[in-house]
């Protein structure tokens, strides 16, 4: 079981995501997130998946694509830090990614299949790390971050967006 990160292991901005997991094991959260996303996607119509709750906001498909893009980037960071790569890792502009993803026009089943593949790879990646590896820190977006903090950020970020979908879209 991966231990919970200390507040010194991540930028305070990410507390909004990590706080969703205060009492939860991150590996359990990854599996529950996988189940929750699959249940949500199965329960929605194509029109709902293409909808946004307000002008200028992302569609549900775009939110899912955003989750996948972010998870991939944060897993890359985790791998590099776990392997003791001392390279400072750049940030990314999430808002610039969305329009170029064309997620709203993608086939819903293919989008979900991609999500499932990414999540399985994330689970496998974090299971491969030793406790020592999970406590390693590096620099990403000009901030210190640990491997275990990245795991908790990924899982908490997903919970955050699923809550937004339930509160504002449905």
Q: What would you note in describing this structure?
A:
- The chain is built from eight helices and two strands, in the order αααααααββα.
- It has 170 residues and is mainly α.
- The protein has a single domain (7-169), classed as Four Helix Bundle (Hemerythrin (Met), subunit A) (Up-down Bundle), CATH 1.20.120.450.
- A hairpin with a 2-residue loop joins strand 1 and strand 2 (143-146).
- Helix 2 packs parallel to helix 8 and helix 4 packs antiparallel against helix 8 (147-169).
CATH topology-level name = Four Helix Bundle (Hemerythrin (Met), subunit A)
Strand order of the largest sheet: 1-2
CATH homologous superfamily annotation: dinb family like domain
Bin the strand percentage. under 5%
Which architecture does the CATH hierarchy give at level 2? Up-down Bundle
Share in helix: 55-70%
Can you lay out the helices and strands and say which pair or pack?
Blueprint: H1 15-18, H2 26-43, H3 46-49, H4 60-82, H5 94-101, H6 108-128, H7 131-134, E1 137-140, E2 143-146, H8 147-169
Antiparallel strand pairs: 1-2
Helix pairs in contact: 2-6, 2-8, 4-5, 4-6, 4-8
Q: Main traits of this protein?
A:
170 residues; 8 helices; two-stranded antiparallel sheet; Four Helix Bundle (Hemerythrin (Met), subunit A); mainly alpha
What's the gist of this structure?
The protein has 170 residues and is mainly α.
